[in-house]
Amino acid sequence: MTGHNTSHKVVVIGGGYAGTLAANRLRVRDDVAVTLVNPRPEFVERIRLHQFVARTGQATIDYGTLLGEGVELVVDSATRIDTAARRVLLASGGALDYDYVIYAVGSTGAVPSVPGAAEHAWPLADLESARRLRARLDELPPGAAVTVVGGGLTGVETAAELAERGRQVTLVCGRTLAPYLSSGGRRYVAKWLARHGVTVLEGVTVTEVRPEAIVLDDGGVRPSALTIWTVGFGLPELAAASGLRTDALGRLLTDETLTSVDDERVVAAGDAAAPSGRPLRMSGYAAGPLGAQAADTVLSRIAGTEPAAIDLAFTGACVSLGRHAGIRQIAGKDDKAVNVYIPGRAGALIKEVTCRFVVSKRIRGEARKPGSMSWPKGGPRPETPASAPAISA
Question: For 24, what's the count of Cα atoms within 13 Å in the CB-facing half-sphere?
């Protein structure tokens, strides 16, 4: 570690996969004072929320077992980044001075625009939503009709987990079931769901959610005692509220070093980053490397050296199908699935090992030895044709 007289204050906003790892990695230097701001006193394993809802697993971990020595945890919410005064304003009325901010606020579920969905559908993108959903499930009789809206990986995992617990589940996919997967991977998932009694509706969308039913775009009305909404991502509005430019979804616009295009003392990580207006897939997979690279960018600026461009190769995705099956989809470094996948118990084992690896090896590994994490590299990202990204002020 490098010793210096002055202390550099870094405030990390958001204690998810990216923010927690970044906070630990910043301790490479002993002259960096790291404060992690998070609205909850515990870390949420978002990739396990479907297990939490189905009562097949837990989704929270004590920060005391994750954060390296010297990282200060402030349980509060940031309401504004005052870039002129270099202060993060907090919901409690307090404020934190900073030299650098790592913006790792993560993502949450999108607010649905479908009539009745905001009132009658149940999201599951954060811990509070998952707690409410779990309590509601406990009240339902075992044979009640449950609908999961959204055929992406979260929707598939949720439907599978509940079906394995004996629930009567319908999965409404919109266009396609699990569009990220290869055609072979999709066929495997479809067969598993059919075998476990899940009704999969492809090529239809929900046009209205009622208290006890859903209405489809073909005019059909299906009973639904509980409708779970897993469609789309939303982001906190902190960046825009702080006068920093974002993309249309609310991700902070950055250059390829994850530095805000408006302020070189604000660096983004994880789902909240839109480098060059071309964000990476929102995922737990990308969160760790982006957290590490955000920390490295801050450390480079402190050292007076040029920060490196983001360098991450995707390798695919893992999907759990209940507790005994799953699928490991292989993809090229550009994150496009190839027709190679590992199904069944082996797929389930890989998914579980991956979930544990992210916490025990990556986050705790950085707590034990800051700067130690490595990840698959893909080289500089290719330039895309100069079509202007959608920007909101």
Answer: 31
Average pLDDT over residues 194-216: 97
Which of 102, 47, 123, 38 shows the shortest CA–CA distance to 72?
Answer: 38
- Residue pair 277/246 in contact by the 8 Å Cβ criterion: no
Residue with tokens 């500089």: 380
Ramachandran region, residue 98 (left: φ > 0; alpha: ψ -120 to 50; beta: rest)? beta
pTM: 0.93
Q: Which helix (H) or strand (E) holds 161?
A: helix 153-164
How is residue 237 written in tokens? 């509005």
User: How would you list the strands of the sheet with 213-216, edge to edge?
Assistant: 206-210, 213-216, 221-223
**Interhelix angle for 17-25 vs 284-303, to 10°?**
30
Cα of 275 vs its chain's centroid, Å = 16
From residue 138, give the alpha-carbon distance in Å to each of 132, 142, 211, 294.
Answer: 10, 9, 17, 41
Q: What is the pLDDT of residues 4-17, one digit of tens each?
A: 456 999 999 999 99
Q: Which amino acid type is present at position 390?
A: A
User: SS3 letters for 42-94?
Assistant: EEECHHHHHHHHHCCCCCEEEHHHCCCCCCEEEECCEEEEECCCCEEEECCCC
User: Distance between CA 249 and CA 255 in Å, rounded?
Assistant: 17
